[in-house]
Design brief:
By secondary structure, the protein is an alpha+beta fold. Helices cover 52% and strands 19% of the residues. It has one domain. Strand 5 and strand 6 form a beta hairpin.
């Protein structure tokens, strides 16, 4: 009769003889694997932070270049003070407005522009530059370090901590823009004293130039956005009209938004809409960063500029909006000057 034996894994003698082999074959490799994973996680976190720092540094460098060029234009404006330099000043004011339309005018350039406005006695240059500052203050600067709190890993940063950083960053931007809006209003009042002989009258050529940029027609809104590897940055934007535009114009239609200068992105998506009254323009966006490579490395942070193109038309009932938008602009300017004078008395 064959003797029945228990399986080897239930044999105590076998375990006493082979326990060291088991530890060497299973336990030690498992521990080494866990140590390696922890090391890779630490390395991945370090790489991600380095990439974030590099991306922010890149944004700040681009913003510094934009601010330098804008401030240089404003400095040149202040040196062309003679009546023979009107065309040059208007051309430079037009260039600053172009910067604003490209999303490249922001604090502290807006503060410098607002301070300069109090000295600008030419109505055409004043209207162009004032419109530039007003439009710039509707956008979030691309150098603003506003974190996207999508797909946050607990080992990197908690959602609550990221949300707090995001809130503080948005508040800093809002505070700067609030200060610049106050400067813009104060410049309007100071201009009455600095330019006592100025009137909102313009030549036909100057009025046509202002109408081209402040009257009915196409507008473009740009917003710089970035995202980390294997992350999604999504959200929505409210794009209101400036105070000057909303008095005589409304939004008629908006094209499908797109991204300019997109780099290191898996995919992008964007949509836009207009409210029933044509007063508010909204846009939603989403962009996904590149996937991480086999070893967990990030090939580079993603970024792009959201572009929203829309058309403004005369608001029904707005006086002379269709035939003389520049004249309407001048009338509003005169009204502001008159109110400012009364407030000084």
């Amino acid at each position: 009769m064959v003797e029945s034996r228990a399986p080897w894994w239930r044999d105590e003698d076998w375990w006493r003889e082979h326990w060291a082999d088991v530890i060497g074959a299973i336990v030690i490799p498992l521990m080494l694997y866990m140590i390696d994973c922890n090391g890779k996680s630490a390395d991945e976190l370090l790489v991600r932070k380095q990439i974030d720092i590099q991306q922010q540094s890149k944004n700040e460098s681009a913003a510094e270049a934009d601010n330098h060029q804008a401030i240089e234009l404003l400095a040149n404006l202040s040196t062309h003070t003679g009546s023979t330099d009107l065309q040059a000043r208007r051309a430079m004011a037009q260039a600053v407005l172009g910067y604003a339309n490209q999303g490249r005018l922001y604090h502290p350039s807006t503060a410098v522009a607002a301070d300069y406005l109090r000295l600008e006695c030419d109505e055409a240059a004043y209207q162009l530059l004032s419109q530039a500052v007003a439009r710039a203050l509707l956008q979030t600067p691309k150098n603003a370090n506003i974190p996207s709190c999508e797909d946050k890993a607990a080992k990197d940063e908690t959602l609550a901590a990221c949300a707090a950083r995001r809130t503080n960053a948005l508040k800093a931007v809002a505070d700067d823009q609030g200060d610049d809006r106050a400067r813009l209003k104060q410049a309007e009042l100071d201009r009455v004293k600095m330019c006592p002989g100025s009137t909102p009258e313009m030549s036909a050529a100057a009025a046509d130039m202002v109408s081209q940029y402040t009257g009915p027609g196409q507008r473009t809104f740009r917003q710089y956005l970035d995202v980390g590897c294997a992350q999604t940055n999504q959200g929505s934007l409210n794009i209101p009209l400036s105070d000057e535009e909303s008095q005589t114009l409304k939004i008629d239609k908006v094209l499908k938004p797109h991204f300019e200068g997109a780099s290191n992105l898996n995919w992008t998506d964007a949509n836009a809409w207009v409210d029933a009254d044509g007063d508010q323009l909204g846009a939603s966006y989403a962009l996904r960063g590149l996937d991480r490579q086999t070893m967990g490395n990030c090939p580079g942070g993603g970024h792009g500029t959201l572009v929203v193109e829309y058309t403004l038309v005369p608001r029904p009932g707005a006086e002379n909006a269709q035939t003389a938008p520049a004249q309407t602009q001048m009338q509003r300017s005169l009204g502001k000057m008159q109110r400012a004078i009364k407030s000084k008395k």
